[in-house]
Design brief:
alpha+beta, Jelly Rolls, globular
Length: 232
């Protein structure tokens, strides 16, 4: 659903997603023990992970906004004048060494989890609303570890019209090709660690997925995403 992509990209994206959907049938929210059992490692260390990102936030450096890192995402990131900021650590198996140096404990944990292909911290400003959207690629599933959840007001994610309210130190796993949105209707910042977990895929789809994964990885490089992910 990226708005700045050309017709050829959109054609391939939509046809590809239709093909994945014809082969993979999973619900919006996924069972953590079945699809990402390593979540327990992250939950055990959530306070240390929280401490690292809060140290970066309080350092005085400016984290890039989502649409500054990924062109064409203004419709969900720059839609209301409120910030959705990121700290990228890992993008499609490529580590952002400078950003990783800011969060050594988190990076060390993630490097021990082979199914994790992308990782970043997501910081939502008070009042931020990420409107309904859906991911274009079913080869990954989205994991969220809540690190700082506002205590007063409504702060939740909605996937396939089903609400999920975050809890500090707790995990959520979902298929982001379902329509989803995020609401932080509070006066506080919400902080989470977001991961892309590689799906286990078999048959011919496995080889097709290898091609798509490498294609997306190439686009990350061509988009100069690492440079855009630097703090200022």
């Amino acid at each position: 659903m990226q708005n700045n992509r050309g017709w050829l990209f959109k054609f391939f994206r939509d046809r590809s997603l239709n093909y994945y959907n014809s082969k993979i049938k999973t619900p919006a929210y996924l069972d953590l023990d079945k699809y990402f059992a390593d979540y327990t490692v992250l939950e055990e260390s959530w306070k240390e992970i929280k401490q690292e990102i809060e140290g970066v936030i309080s350092s005085g450096k400016t984290l890039p906004k989502f649409h500054e890192v990924d062109d064409g995402q203004e419709y969900i990131s720059d839609n209301d004048g409120l910030s959705w900021s990121l700290l990228n650590l890992l993008l499609y198996e490529m580590w952002h060494e400078k950003n990783c140096g800011l969060c050594p404990k988190t990076t060390s944990i993630l490097k021990g989890l082979g199914s994790v292909k992308s990782a970043y911290f997501s910081i939502l400003a008070p009042g931020k609303h990420i409107p309904p959207h859906k991911g274009p690629y079913k080869g990954i599933i989205r994991y969220q570890l809540a690190l700082s959840v506002p205590k007063n007001g409504e702060c939740k994610i909605i996937v396939d019209d089903k609400d999920c309210f975050w809890e500090d130190g707790k995990s959520v796993l979902f298929d982001d090709t379902y329509t989803h949105e995020v609401i932080n209707n509070t006066n506080e910042v919400r902080i989470a660690l977001l991961l892309d977990i590689k799906r286990e895929i078999s048959g011919f789809l496995k080889y097709y997925d290898m091609f798509v994964f490498k294609l997306i990885k190439s686009l990350v490089v061509l988009n100069n995403t690492f440079s855009k992910s630097k703090l200022k």
